[in-house]
Amino acid sequence: MxxxxxxxxxxxxxxxxxxxxxxxxxxxxxxxxxxxxGTSGGGKTTLLRTIAGLIPPRSGSVxxxxxxxxxxxxxxxxxFQHFGLFPWKTARANVAYGLEVQGKREAHGRVxxxxxxxxxxxxxxxxxxxxxxxxxxxxxxxxxxxxxxxxLLLDEPFSSVDALTRERLQSExxxxxxxxxxxxxxxxxxxxxxxxxxxxRIIVIAGPxxxxxxxxxxxxxxxxxxxDVRAHPDYSKxxxxxxDALEFPPVRRAGTA
Length: 257
Description:
alpha/beta; 2 domains; 6-stranded mixed β-sheet; 4-stranded antiparallel β-sheet; about 25% strand
């Protein structure tokens, strides 16, 4: 993990006249999974959409693989918090959509393998309206993975499902990631335990406006399970540091930016 793949250099973003992100710098290395955590209103989703090329920064730059990110690119895939599926397409057709847009045929049963891995084969011909929340999110994750992006962006992908489904999805995505480390990933979440479970490195964004508060590499062994992570001797120390960073953002003195 020595080659920088995604670089944000002093990125600031203004929306509707309000400064949402202020001078955010971060780097994600090849095949690294970075988690960004923060409280509501801290600019996490804006950060992810800026990385995706959906929101232009007011200042600073975003680059992927050495090339500037100026607009959405097929090199990046995104998993949305609220599924983002096409209601008129079956689960299988939703998963295959990105490949069709890119003019690629289903390579070596890639779509079917993802349907199998995410326990969707039995509902592959169902429409989103016939699926549970957990199944919809599995379809969204499979659709993003199907195009084999260089960069996978996940915007709180487990927050719209119940607690049990959330844990299952975390486990399934983590297993897929650990078996096939082919891409860089950035996961936005408000859940400290989820970040510790998933990440190679955690970035805490405090705001508004959003600024990097803490950057914490994690040296926890993989493969991981939630039970293994909670039993690790460093777990309590890691969790406390992240909690403190979220609860006690730096106090700015009068007259400072």
